[in-house]
Amino acid sequence: MSLGAVQRWVLSSLAATTIMHLAVGVMIAAYFSHRLDAKIGLLVISAAFGIVAMVAALLIHKHRLLSSWLLIGLLPAAVGAFLLFG
């Protein structure tokens, strides 16, 4: 593997995990919220941050943006929805 490829993988991993941590944090904030509208809004924000994380990784690797990898970005919001409403 060339140095450029390794740097690309490290950068995309760091970007995706950092933004995913933000998505999980927003999901945890939704879990501890007392208002239903705030819970739903925070879960939507969590889903948006998750998708942004995957888009960042796809952009770094120069892949097309509409990919099945975007579904991984919805994972924190889906887990939060299951914990809150399931």
Structure description:
The chain is mainly α. Helices cover about 80% and strands about 0% of the residues. It has 4 helices and no strands. About 25% of the residues are buried.
Distance N to C terminus: 45 Å
User: Can you give the helix content as a percent range?
Assistant: over 70%
Outline: elongated
The main β sheet shows up as:
none
Derived from helix and strand composition plus strand pairing, the structural class reads: mainly alpha
Uncertain parts: none
Total strands: the figure is 0
Strand content is under 5%
Tally of contiguous helical segments: 4
> How large, in whole angstroms, is the Cα Rg?
15 Å
Order of helices and strands: HHHH
Estimate the mean pLDDT confidence: 95
Summary tags:
single chain, 86 residues
List the topology elements.
Layout: H1 3-32, H2 36-60, H3 70-73, H4 75-85
Sum this structure up briefly.
The chain is mainly alpha-helical and 86 residues long.
